[in-house]
Amino acid sequence: MEDEVDRLVAAWRRERPDLDVGPLEVLSRVSRLARHLDRARRQAFSEHSLEPWEFDVLTALRRAGAPYQLSPGQLLTQTLVTSGTMTNRIDRLAKKGLVERLPDPNDRRGVLVRLTEEGRDRADSSLAELLEQERAILAELSPAQQAELANLLRQLTAPFDNVSG
């Protein structure tokens, strides 16, 4: 079975035999797969009237468990955006009725962001749709191959995830 990356690599080997283009065989496929995954994610979220960033915030709150609330700082850590961006996102989600701000009982100046019932329903339904899309992407691989691929990708991504800053 040949794919577009095989053709790309063959062309570079022909045109630039002086270069080791081996990394393209893996990383070009990862890049192409990321684009397909991005399309699948956007489709899954749009069916539930969510943007990808909205899904990220809602599911961070959902994963927190009952009562489905976090401080804005905790949301920052989980979504990797600036505090100004997070404030804007919380405002927009609150306007849509998907989250609410509550006073933090442990900090008089602090607030907590809590999922509303509608926010929880949207997080749950869009996650189910996303997982259906992702299962379709992985359908050509056996469960053992999926586990092997997950382990290999973990080895590649862990150093990036463990970099502070």
Automatic annotation (TrEMBL):
Record's Pfam families? MarR_2 (PF12802)
Q: Which Gene3D superfamilies match?
A: Winged helix-like DNA-binding domain superfamily/Winged helix DNA-binding domain
* Assigned keywords, A-Z: DNA-binding, Transcription, Transcription regulation
Does the keyword Transcription belong to this entry?
yes
Q: Which SMART domains match?
A: HTH_MARR (SM00347)
**All copies of domain HTH marR-type, residue ranges:** 23-158
| Protein name, per record | MarR family transcriptional regulator TamR
Provide the species name: Streptomyces thermogriseus
